[in-house]
């Protein structure tokens, strides 16, 4: 009896969703490629473009911040290409949740969906709180003083006052999203256009005062210490550039919201890949341009890390220009808020439609064609968090969710690219399951031309091994950085062995036959590009602090309780399973 229950539970964990591009949707298909590109740019290019370049250049990388941004953009593009392939392959609402449901199974899909909810809630709350703080600073903290005098809060990790402005703005944006994807997209297009115009103004205006010799200057140092490195283009060395790239990587987070629009894009198989690649390209050019201007107008060690551009324009005598920058920052924050809030109801809708969370959250408005209940419930939760919590302790939780989703999507791309080929099913006989045959197949000594069920299973196991090796390497690289830099044998030798083993596993994956399926968009250089994306994402996850992992674990425990008490029993995939194929077609039976 117990073995039957365990077997049934394993089947529940591994049941996969069958999705075809032609499936009908209750959402309105109204978003063009331009709308999706603007959504990607808006959600990614927030206030960070006005802050990140200054803080990283002064404290981490110096003028070589432009190299850090280039490395971060390449790493983000790897993840973006994986999302683009899945957006073309599985054009449905839900992003990484749906992708993992199709490839990995229901349990993994729920974990990813639950993680994405956390990511978007925390992301939205942090952006709206940042917007409130930025606006309040323009009026000498009038709101802070009024709210603190009315309702002071003295609790650790909570805000010192309830931010009613942040709560109100969240509800307004939730209402805008609930009224329709097209209407909210028009608002996002406006905010993004203003933001890009201000960025362009900063680049052009700053370039008039640029002096390349500032890339060669050296800070004043004493014999005891030199706070800002050795000067020149890379004052903090290669280590500073890499550390800067890890920080800059977070400046590209947000483009994945484009992948949630699979049921609202007019032509998702074409639009989503184009929008993701185009938005990441524009965002990189913006970051590259502002960081170049910033470090050529002023030496890197003279930057103001909190407000670099108002400070820069004050230094060159253009005090009026800081108000232009302020307008751009506010519009950038508004676009980021829309971009952060837009995907959350879509993920909730996808999970509720599949029966994994409460069904009422996925109901679609017949008038507005949006998941109105999911939108407002997510908006209220976000507004409460933004109003009462001190979000500096929670911001890293957004990063851990994003990086985990990136890793899962890249792994899914690898698994699907080597799935069982239809050509093999029709033309070949089943392959033998002997140890000799399997051992030979690791290097494809059997010379199979089409992927089979066996080769697909081999790749799935190899990808799992690859991820485990990445975790080990990422853990060692993050925990023993100084020992590795000093060449300590007890750390370097095991790390080198792990890297060699990683390359061997990757070579085995490369030698397996692919499915050969024609796709509207395909990730190039498979398996190397997705594999590198997995390694980078896992390393960045390992760089996060212990408290972030603890809070993330608590959130996941809450999610598991919901899944085991509700989702596993109400899943739509539970009710029907396909057993075998006979002369009359598929035979459908009730599942366990």
How big is the Rg?
25 Å
Strands of the biggest beta sheet: in what spatial order?
A: 1-2
Spans of 5+ residues with little confidence (pLDDT < 50)? Answer: 578-592
Oligomeric form of this entry? Answer: single chain
Structural write-up:
This protein has a two-stranded antiparallel ribbon with strand order 1-2. The chain has helices at about 1-15, 35-45, 50-60, 65-90, 95-105, 105-140, 140-150, 165-180, 180-205, 235-250, 270-295, 310-315, 320-340, 345-355, 370-390, 395-415, 420-425, 435-440, 455-480, 480-485, 490-510, 530-540, 545-570, 570-575, and strands spanning about 575-580, 585-590. With about 600 residues, it is mainly α.
Strands, helices and their partners?
Layout: H1 2-14, H2 33-44, H3 48-61, H4 65-89, H5 96-103, H6 106-138, H7 142-150, H8 164-178, H9 181-207, H10 237-249, H11 268-297, H12 308-315, H13 321-341, H14 343-353, H15 372-388, H16 395-417, H17 422-427, H18 435-441, H19 453-479, H20 481-485, H21 489-511, H22 528-542, H23 546-570, H24 572-575, E1 576-582, E2 585-590
Antiparallel strand pairs: 1-2
